[in-house]
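Write out structure tokens for Type II secretion system protein GspG C-terminal domain-containing protein.
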Amino acid sequence: MRVELSFIKEEKGFTLIELLVVIAIIGVLSSVVMVSLNAGRARARDAKRQGDLNAMRTALELFHDSTGRYPSTPDGDCNYNKSFLLGGCLQVLVSGGFISLLPSDPTSSEQYYYDNWCRETSGYILSNQSFRMWANGEFNHNGLAQNWWSDYNIGYTTCLDPS
């Protein structure tokens, strides 16, 4: 009877190099996916900003149709840099039923702007017959500024300067 002893073990599993290559590939793929998701989320937030400006514009036009003017304070100024939610003259849109609530930015409550200044040949003046509002966007759209503008005259646009 012959017995053979085998001292050579059969190797099973992956080498350290193979594992590192697989981990590196997974890391690269996950970073590409994350970048794509972040860009999509930024576009979605910008779409919400556009929708919010359109809703506010509609509410402002309904208010104007009802009262013959746009919201303003007794001294004529209705300037809200940073937020629609700061109260004051825009609350009449909610209390009058022109909009259910004043919108807020998807990332912060301080990203929308509103004023009732209009441009004349001599410069900007207060007017209850005009308004401007805008939001800071995140995504660069076709090389234009990342701001969305809307006013009583031109409606909703993307532009470098609304004046």
